[in-house]
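We close this part of the discussion by returning to an individual protein. In the encoding step, the backbone of a single protein was reduced to a row of integers, each denoting a local shape. The sequence in question and its structure tokens are set out directly beneath this paragraph.
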Amino acid sequence: MKTKYLLIFLALLVVLAGCAGAPRTASQSADARPEYAVVEREVVAQPAMAPMATPAPGYATGEGVAADADRMIIRTGSLALLVGDTNKAMESVGGIVAELQGYIVSSNSWRNNEYVSANMSVRVPAASFDAAMERIKAVANVVKNTSTSGDDVTEEYADLDAQLRTLKATENELLELLTQVRERTGKAEDILAVYRELTNIRSQIERIEGRMQYLGRMTAMATINISLEPDIVDQPLTSDSKWRPQATIASALKRLVETLQFLGGALIWILLYVAPILILILLPLVALVWLINRLRRNKKQA
């Protein structure tokens, strides 16, 4: 009878876990799952299970989200700038980001003829987003384009937090049930049944906590994508690069060969394609003109 009541209680816990539902986003940010032996030692040594009931990172503790924030917004900005010196502008942007306690995510520069262009992606604290945008704009000679956007994830975060609380309550009930099963029956099949459900609940908790940590980091730091292009008006009239006549000669010869190849190809097309077509078109016309002239001569002679 005890085993029967135990299985009924276990079924009720499974239904409760199913009502909690899976998280809406399938973020797989959990790095590792707890080992069985570790969980069993915790159950025996600490029946109250206090360590399992710690709040989700980035929410109750305030990590990644300000305690007084009403909404959780992922902010993103984009800037297209014309600058006098691209390399100096990149250094200036890096200094501004460092002063605001941010960091550079990516940086890429390339040379097009004599001019250098670059793209940068930086992250700054969300509270300094507007200040960073204005200070980076000041680096440019001309601001070609600017845009900002925000993604409100408050509802998603609140939904994840509700699911997390339900799953942790279910986890605590399963841990208590696991302790009772060991003390009362000690049957291996009963212990394994409870432990399978406990492992499933723990994996869902880790997925939700990982997603909440990601949202916390994204709302705490704003992203700014920057395009740096050289301002032609501000460029020097003389080039700093050395003149290389060998390269000029090689380039001229290359163009000459390409031109000769084009002319040779055109001649082949004319001889093998255009000329036969013209012959086929003109031959009937020539024959018709000759016939008309012949008839006219015969008419005059008559």
